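S.,

Sequence below, as promised.
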Amino acid sequence: MPTLIRFLVVLLLLAGIAVGAMIALTVMVTPEQHEIENSIPARELFDQ
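The prediction came back faster than expected:
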């Protein structure tokens, strides 16, 4: 039983670290906004 509890504690700690890292990324990182322009050839639009 102690081995199971130790295993579950380690899993909870790893999950907590992962959640903390995700929250830190959402708080600290701001994405840059820019326009995207893609050219599509007309033959691909009207290909039948």
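The mean pLDDT is 91.

Coffee later?
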